[in-house]
């Protein structure tokens, strides 16, 4: 994490209790109730801000585990007498407050737009994790404390549940065929349809915006039919043709046979938030284009200077030297071509189509491809794969490119030979791939610059290979981290979500 992100994380931890009390004020305004929330609830909300701050300033994976524990009502001794929406709203309002704080920090120039994007990339998955964990724990605790008779959902109970959700959310109920049976006023307002126009219509068809692929939408349905809660963002089309974004949680209801017979959709309007994020992203892209253009000009100017000088003396030299100079010119032209090709991978939009692919097969193929080169350099590649094959949802050729780049870099860090260890391990709902070498290593300053355009520790390199790899990993909802010590070696850790989680949140898209 950079300094701005870490400092914001520490600030969240320090202000956690203040922000938790702010949520209480929001609840009172929303519910028109002067009654304050109980002390245990406020402490519980405060812990969420502390965990988010800890993820930004110190340890993401530890914070993720702590949020899992935070969502356990019985473990945290949190009152279980309120509705599920009440608890989910705590997560939703937490994000709203963090965005408000960030806006103020940006106005005061204490947080840059780039840092804001990095902060959101950290906290958004954690808040999604908090939402799904809360829903699962709430359902589990409710199930364990109710009798069989209580589990029969009566019409009266459903009406009570609808009433609780009507005030705070965009809410709908659909049957097993995705036919709408109920919508609240907020749903009608954002979609610009009347209730009569919506009842009996297919939810997926009437709001189809064309933004999402069929594969993405089918993954949502598949998840619901499996009885799993789905959480994500959806772009819908209103009656007048305008598009709007909603943060959506879909909760299926199962009968005694374990089959889905209806599901509820709880949504929040995030259209303005998406517009703000898009503007920030465009700003970030313009900044990156300028940086890339400057780097590209510098990298191309060097070989062009060499070519120009050799061409000027080519006609005045001997035949032997003409051959040598011609070879150098061709080499420099190849170098320019390589730089431009790598740059085009970053700059040119192209479609990415995700499929199921075996991580073990990809890694074995990469090791086989590089085996001859490794032998020539006296490098031994050891694989230590997880016993059970791991299936990822992604683009096989791009994943292959990532591991080829990382292994080649590892070999180049072993000028006198050495060992590279490639290992895989399962960490909760993710798979981790570690590529470790005992080579020359890097300084702390060098590690910080890894992944920047045109930064390289090699004598002949552009730094674009790692930048492309970082972008591919990001497009696959993954993350990458680097640990290195000078003269001792380097370890790259790459994590990807397992297919069960990745398939519902990753879809065919355009690489921008």
UniProtKB/TrEMBL annotation:
What reaction gets catalysed by this protein? ATP + protein L-histidine = ADP + protein N-phospho-L-histidine
> Where is the PAS domain positioned along the sequence?
173-215
- Residues in PAC domain copies: 228-282
Histidine kinase domain location: 295-500
From its record, what is one biological process in GO terms? sporulation resulting in formation of a cellular spore
Does the keyword field hold ATP-binding?
A: yes
Name by which UniProt lists this protein = histidine kinase
Q: Which organism is it from?
A: Fictibacillus arsenicus
Q: What is the lineage of its organism?
A: Bacteria, Bacillati, Bacillota, Bacilli, Bacillales
């Amino acid at each position: 994490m950079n300094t701005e992100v870490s400092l914001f994380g520490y600030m969240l931890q320090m202000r956690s209790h203040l922000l938790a009390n702010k949520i209480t004020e929001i609840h009172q305004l929303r519910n028109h109730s002067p009654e304050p929330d109980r002390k245990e609830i406020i402490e519980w909300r405060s812990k969420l801000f502390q965990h988010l701050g800890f993820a930004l300033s110190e340890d993401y994976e530890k914070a993720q585990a702590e949020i899992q524990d935070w969502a356990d009502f019985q473990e945290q001794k949190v009152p279980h007498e309120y509705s599920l929406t009440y608890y989910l709203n705590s997560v939703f309002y937490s994000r709203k407050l963090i965005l408000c704080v960030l806006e103020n920090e940006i106005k005061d120039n204490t947080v840059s737009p780039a840092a804001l994007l990095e902060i959101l990339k950290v906290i958004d998955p954690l808040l999604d994790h908090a939402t799904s964990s809360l829903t699962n724990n709430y359902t589990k605790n409710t199930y364990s404390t109710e009798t069989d008779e209580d589990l029969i959902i009566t019409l009266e109970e459903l009406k009570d549940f609808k009433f609780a959700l009507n005030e705070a959310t965009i809410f709908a109920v659909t049957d097993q065929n995705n036919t709408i049976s109920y919508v609240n006023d907020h749903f009608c307002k954002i979609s610009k349809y009347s209730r009569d126009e919506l009842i009996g219509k297919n939810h997926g068809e009437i709001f189809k915006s064309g933004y999402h692929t069929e594969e993405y939408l089918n993954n949502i349905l598949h998840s619901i039919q499996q009885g799993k809660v789905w959480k994500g963002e959806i772009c819908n089309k209103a009656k007048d043709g305008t598009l709007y974004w909603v943060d959506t949680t879909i909760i299926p209801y199962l009968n005694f046979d374990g089959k889905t017979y209806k599901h509820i959709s709880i949504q929040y309007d995030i259209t303005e938030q998406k517009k703000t994020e898009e503007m920030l992203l465009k700003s970030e892209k313009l900044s990156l284009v300028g940086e890339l253009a400057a780097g590209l000009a510098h990298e191309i100017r060097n070989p062009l200077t060499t070519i120009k000088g050799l061409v000027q003396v080519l006609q005045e030299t001997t035949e032997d030297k003409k051959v040598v100079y011609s070879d150098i010119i061709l080499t420099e032209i190849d170098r320019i071509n390589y730089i431009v090709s790598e740059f085009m991978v970053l700059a040119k939009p192209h479609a990415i189509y995700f499929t199921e692919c075996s991580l073990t097969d990809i890694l074995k193929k990469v090791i086989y491809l590089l085996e001859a080169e490794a032998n020539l350099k006296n490098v031994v590649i050891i694989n230590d794969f997880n016993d059970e094959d791991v299936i990822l949802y992604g683009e096989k050729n791009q994943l292959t490119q990532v591991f080829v780049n990382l292994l080649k870099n590892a070999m180049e860090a072993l000028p006198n030979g050495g060992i590279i260890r490639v290992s895989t391990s399962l960490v909760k709902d993710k798979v981790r791939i570690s590529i470790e070498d005992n080579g020359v290593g890097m300084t702390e300053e060098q590690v910080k610059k890894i992944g920047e355009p045109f930064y390289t520790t090699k004598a002949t390199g552009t730094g674009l290979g790692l930048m492309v790899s970082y972008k591919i990993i990001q497009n696959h909802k993954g993350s990458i981290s680097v640990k290195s010590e000078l003269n001792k070696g380097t370890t790259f850790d790459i994590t990807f979500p397992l297919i069960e989680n990745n398939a519902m949140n990753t879809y065919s898209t355009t690489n921008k």
